[in-house]
Design brief:
Bound molecules: adenosine-5-diphosphoribose
Distance between the termini: 23 Å
Number of helices: 13
Shape: elongated
CATH topology of the largest domain: Rossmann fold
Structural class: alpha/beta
Number of strands: 11
Length: 272
Amino acid sequence: MLAPPVRCLLDTPGLILWLTGAGVSAESGIPTFRGKEGYWQVGSRNYQPEEMATWAAFQEMPEEVWAWYLYRRGICRGAEPNAAHRALAAAERRRGERFLLVTQNVDGLHLRAGNTLDRTYQIHGNIDFMRCSRECLPAPVPMPEGVDVAWGKGRPITERELQALKCPSCGALARPHVLWFDESYDEANFRFESSIDAAQRASLVVVVGTTGATSLPMHIGTIAAQRGIPMVVINPEPNPFSALVQRTGQGAFLCGTAGQWVPEIVDALPSA
Ligand code: APR
């Protein structure tokens, strides 16, 4: 049950900026990033996600990196949007221009739930898209049909599938449209400036399911704190965003899951 002070925070005519992390997809069965997500075995060696999700690993072992992403893509495509995703799609329908969603998730579940690409900034990319490894294409392209979606863990990639993963324009090997740990945010692929601009304009920020381990989300939280606007933070455990709320006294920390709180918050939003 939302306490009256939280209800008051939601009663704003301005832009509500939602910021989501892997926790919003946990109840869809997608392992969170720093949760107990499995390592990836290459030969006799086990690699952590932080080692595989890099341009350096792609240059060293492109087929292994592709096989890992195709495996993770299979998990994402096998998952369904949950109540929190559906509630966020309803929130966009209800608030239109006064709704913006910045997501760290590459699983595509917000768009599958009904949020629009116009108002959803996928700041770490989307696993269902790929880009030319020579960056010769103007924008990411959808993954080709000829690549299996259900991918067994450890399954190697075939020559036919590798051919399907070539840039349709220059023929170079494509790469997943995902921001890697040794790469930087930008506007064209990851809506960097647009996300900062949204944080400067928002009247409320709602943060759902993230450890705050990456720079752009934390930058959004810091801007909100510096501007003195409230944040509503939803997470099963405290995180740097709940610590900001505690320090500034602006907002609320709702300890719990996305499925528990997001639908209730959206229901409490004033209609358009
Ligand atoms: N509902 C809400 N939050 C949840 C749930 C749930 N059901 N289950 C777990 N969480 C929380 C965890 O407590 C944790 O704070 O979700 C958060 C998941 O944190 P991470 O696994 O670190 O994922 P995230 O914060 O999104 O990672 C950020 O880091 O490695 C990069 O690109 C990668 O997008 C990823 C980014």
